[in-house]
Amino acid sequence: MSLYLGIDFGTSGARCAVIDRQGQVQAEGRYPFNMAMVADLPTCWHEALFAILGQIPLDIRKRIKAIAINGTSATVMLCDRLGKPVDAPLLYNDARGADLLAQLKKIAPANHTVLSATSSLVKLLWFSQLTSFSQAKYFLHQADWLGFLLHGKLGISDYHNALKLGYDVEKLEYPDWLTKFLKKLNSTVELPKIFTPGEAVGTITPEIATRFNFPPDCLICAGTTDSIAAFLASGAKTPGEAVTSLGSTLAVKLLSRTYVEDTRYGIYSHRFPNFGQEQTQQEKDLWLVGGASNTGGAVLRHFFSNDELDSLSREIDAAKISELDYYPLLKAGERFPVNDANLQPQLEPRPENNAEFLHGLLESIARIEARGYKLLQQLGADKLNRVYTAGGGATNTTWIAIRQRYLNVPVESSVNAEAAYGSALLAMGKT
Fold first, then answer.
1. H-type helices in 289-353, by residue range?
2. Looking at 218-257, which runs of residues are DSSP E strands?
3. Which residues contact 84 (CB under 8 A, 6 or more apart)?
4. What is the DSSP pairing of strand 25-32 with strand 13-19?
5. Which distant-in-sequence residues (6+ apart) come within 8 Å of 324 by Cβ?
6. Helix-helix angle 397-407:306-314, to 10 degrees
7. How confident is the model at residue 325, as a pLDDT?
8. Is 289 helix (H, G, I), strand (E, B) or coil?
9. Which of 224-228, 304-308, 317-321 comes out lowest in average pLDDT?
10. What is the dihedral angle through the alpha carbons of 185, 266, 259, 109, rounded to the nearest 10 degrees?
């Protein structure tokens, strides 16, 4: 029986899921990041990848036919000709390139996705100022580099990860303004060759196949981002259905027949990787319209443990509207539905009662989510008719009830809440 492996790299650890052709989970694993190694992210990621491969039972590893990996969007790095990082990677929410946006605005089209303080392209521009830039050969996303560790090919990405680099997902090519811009940098750094998410890049290296007892013909596929993998895992397939990923941050994606992009609000569209051969061309040309907010579970866990979140949530009357109006952030800066690198957290006043405080946080995050979906529809996306929930927040029934009150559509848990499951579907070529 052929099996398919999906691996998810999130903000706090890695997870994996192995599925069969029917989509049934045959094995799962997880590996929390060693926070003592966060200063050396590539080593941390490398260790996590190999550790999670080793967790999969040997008899299952021997039957895996394809592997796909997702990573956090716009987490990027520079590598030399051998794939060795030449400097520390920049994470998805790193906004140190904000001061370079004025320069980028002279080159990129107005309201383009790259015109964000956290885009992949502004990070490449920031990298170009470093002395280490001269040693670099490849600019890669997190998922690209992890895939390289398995297939051994450098300079390869997918059109989901490459969106915030400036890749044109409508025409499926790098735009002229981008290639001309990079020539002016006089750089030897190459932009990655772009594959369709789930497309086979190559077979697993003999070294990795031997070390972990994978079949020598096991395919390593082009990856995707964590939020898109979560969408694929959800079961959403028709226009108007959406997925909210409630992990450390809040990401929303609405399946739409209309492409929407507006950097003023941190909104962008990913091409939906529909692999079904029976669909019409119109059905194939669907878009995942959305954005990602810096609010979310990381703020909640800053104030409460998981056990406290569970117990306090049971004390909350979800039908009652909290009078507390917060903008829950851990530090200044927001991406969506407000794109403001200087937006300040609003977490006051804090009531003495912890349940009341949590109620205010949950309700405020729900308002941000609803505001995001409303904005997507105002800009032309399909009307919202159902929301699936992925991530840790998917299990909080109190929060789901509060969110449903604001969204005014059915809110339910994803078919599978793990982004790793979505990547496994991608490896199988079945979305």
1. 297-303, 306-314
2. 219-221, 224-225, 241-246, 250-256
3. none
4. antiparallel
5. 349, 351, 356, 357, 359, 360, 361, 363, 364
6. 60
7. 96
8. strand
9. 224-228
10. -30
Identify the burial level of 275 via C-beta atoms within 10 angstroms of its C-beta, where 0-12 means exposed, 13-18 middle and 19 or more buried: middle
Structure tokens at 270: 């990913």
What count of other Cβ atoms lies within 10 Å of the Cβ of residue 26?
19
| Residue 280: per-residue pLDDT | 45
Amino acid at 200: A
3-state secondary structure of 245: strand
Dist CA 266 CA 50 (whole Å): 35
The string of pLDDT tens digits covering residues 280-301 is: 444 468 999 998 899 999 999 9
133: left (phi over 0), alpha (psi -120 to 50) or beta: alpha
Instruction: Count CA atoms within 13 Å of residue 72 on its CB side.
Output: 23
**Over pLDDT 70: what percentage of the chain?**
96
The answer to whether the beta carbons of residues 209 and 51 sit under 8 Å apart is: no
61-113 pLDDT, tens digit each: 999 999 999 999 999 999 999 999 999 999 998 999 999 999 999 999 988 88
* Residue 17 to residue 49: CA distance in whole angstroms: 13
Burial of 12 (0-12, 13-18, 19+ CB in 10 A): middle
d(CA 51, CA 277): 36
Q: What's the CA gap between 72 and 419, in Å, rounded?
A: 11
Indicate the pTM of the whole model. 0.85
118, 98 contact by CB (below 8 A): no
Instruction: Report whether pLDDT(274) > 60.
Output: yes
Beta carbons within 10 angstroms of residue 318's beta carbon: 19
- The confidence score (pLDDT) of residue 12 equals 82
* CA–CA distance, 380 with 357 (Å, rounded to integer): 36
Instruction: Determine the pLDDT at residue 278.
Output: 44
pLDDT at 431 over 80: no
Cα separation of 416 and 229, whole Å? 11
List pLDDT tens digits, range 173-193.
999 999 988 888 877 898 999
